[in-house]
Structure formats: structure tokens, C-alpha cells
Amino acid sequence: MNLIIQSLHDIPAESLDHLKQLTGATRIEQVAPHAYRLRDARPESQISDYCLARQVDYGFVPQGKHLSDFGLVVMDMDSTLISIECIDEIADMQGIKPQVAEITEAAMRGEIDFAESLRRRVALLAGLDESALSRVYEERLQLNPGAEIMLAELQRHGIKTLLVSGGFTFFTERLKARVSLDFAHANTLEIVNGKLTGNVLGTIVDAQAKADWLIRIRDELGLSATQVIAMGDGANDLKMMAQAGVSIAYHAKPVVRTQASYAFNFVGLDGLVKLFA
After folding, report:
1. Close Cβ partners of 62 (under 8 Å, ≥ 6 residues apart)
2. Residues marked as catalytic
3. In angstroms, rounded to a whole number, what is the distance separating the alpha carbons of residues 183 and 34?
4. Rounded to a whole number, what is the largest CA-CA distance in the chain?
5. DSSP label at 125?
6. Taking 90 as the threshold, does the pLDDT of residue 122 lie above it?
7. DSSP string, 32-53
8. For residues 263 and 59, what is the distance between their CA atoms, to the nearest angstrom?
9. Mean pLDDT throughout 237-251?
10. What's the pLDDT band for 145 if we cut at 50, 70, 90?
11. Average pLDDT over residues 48-76
12. What is the pTM of this model?
């Protein structure tokens, strides 16, 4: 295995040397600014606490494994590809962000069934003018750090991208066009006479639906599970992540970090590129 370590800041030479000794690595190679590969490293339990204390992300990657070995990357939208929870920001337009955000957090921690939480949150938005959605997209929605770098590298390698979200098609379709994603699926808000009705149309894209979409697109592309990477941050991403050969918890809830192949707690989305450099 190779140990990949990366950070948002310089990693001191003494930290690199300590990790080299701890894992028995044969040599240290810099793969990018603030990112290093320690070759022939063996997993060591002390690494987690050591890196966490220094705000360094790490991952053990099989030797010879590169980004070009994958064919599909599946991403959650809210708080993964983008920096906000869209429904919380829509709620802010209604003056009820704290109430909705509380339900969102509980759902992401896995304390409330996602479909039920979504219905409860959307119901609170009844009567809101649909122009609020445009305002959220134009004024508040931002890609998470490193997203453009990651997506450019995926496209360069011919890797397909799927955005699958428990959020709303109003945002996923705009993001799909904006950053040239290959596939996108989400929930549809019912709008009548320019107002949100408080209902969601059709079957809700919940945890199982996310997993089902991953499998569907993976099979359409003729890929194996080992050729798929899934990224998410909340409990409703776990079933989807379980269907991928590699799962990445991005600035995620504890329940997600403990079940993912890798966790990015500090670096941006371009950490994926460095992980499989």
C-alpha cells in the first residue's frame, strides 16, 4: 500500500518522517502542493489520531491504483459538490431556516427517515414564490473548494459523472449544465401558479433511490463496482456509497466517516485527484 497524506497547509518534514517511521514506508514523494505519497506503507492505527490532530487527511491506496482505473464518479449535491443545503437556504427566504435546518441535520445524522424528513421540510415551504429558488441558485449556491479541478480531471480521463441528490431538480439540472455533468437525478418540487405547494412530485429520491441510480448508471456503462467512486456527507448517502468500490466521506457526519473507504475532513474535492495520483 501507499499512504497518501494531504492538507490545506504545509506538512512539516518532521511529520512526514514520523509517518514514514510509523508505517515502515520506503520513501516519501511529493505528488502535489501539500500532498505526499509514502511508498510501501503498512496500515498503522496511530495514524488516524496523529493526522487528525494536525489537520491532515490520509488514505492507504493500493500500489498502482490511479484515477484512470475508474469509469464513474457518483456525487451527492448538498454539502458535497456544493457548499450549501439548498432546502435550508430556500427556507431562509420563508424566514424559517432554523426549523428546517434542524430537520435537515437530524436526517443527515440518520436520526429521521429521509423521505419523511423531506416531506416535512417541503411542507413548511408552501406558498413561497418560485423566484426564491432562483435567488438561492444565483446568490448563495457555490461549488465546494476543488470542485472545478476534480471535475476537469475526471473529464480528462473520460470518467463519467452522476449527480444524485435528495435535493431538487431545479438545482441539479442547472449544475449539470454549468459544470458539464453526464447524469443528474433529484426530486421535483410541485409549483402551481408560481408558488410552491409544499409537495414533492413522484417518488422521492431517498437513500435507496440513490443506490439504485448508481447501479443503473454503472450497469448502463458496463462498469464493475470496483470502477465506481461515490462521494457523500450524510446518512442518506450510505447505501449509495456501499455500492461503490471506493467511497469518500466529504466533510461528513461521523456515521458516514466511519463507513467510508476514505474521509476528507480538511481538503477540498480535488483531494480525490491527489489520492489517486
Report:
1. 1, 2
2. 76, 78
3. 32
4. 66
5. T
6. yes
7. ETTEEEEET----THHHHHHHH
8. 8
9. 98
10. very high
11. 96
12. 0.94
Backbone dihedral angles phi then psi of residue 37, each to the nearest 5 degrees: -115, 125
% of residues, the chain, pLDDT over 90: 94
Q: How confident is the model at residue 214 (pLDDT cuts 50, 70, 90)?
A: very high
Q: What is the mean pLDDT of residues 165-180?
A: 97
Q: How far apart are CA 27 and CA 41, in angstroms?
A: 9
The residue-averaged pLDDT of 112-139 equals 93
Q: Which of 118, 146, 145, 106 is nearest to 255 (CA)?
A: 106
Residue type, 275: L
| Domain range summary for the chain, segments of one domain joined by + | 1-64
CATH superfamily of this structure's domain 1-64: RRM (RNA recognition motif) domain (3.30.70.330)
Using CA atoms in the order 169, 177, 85, 258, what is the torsion angle rounded to 10 degrees? 100
For 258, counting Cβ atoms within 10 Å of its Cβ (0-12 exposed, 13-18 middle, 19+ buried), the class is: exposed
Which residue stretches of the chain are H helix? 13-23, 46-53, 86-93, 97-108, 114-123, 131-139, 147-156, 169-179, 207-220, 238-242, 254-257, 271-275
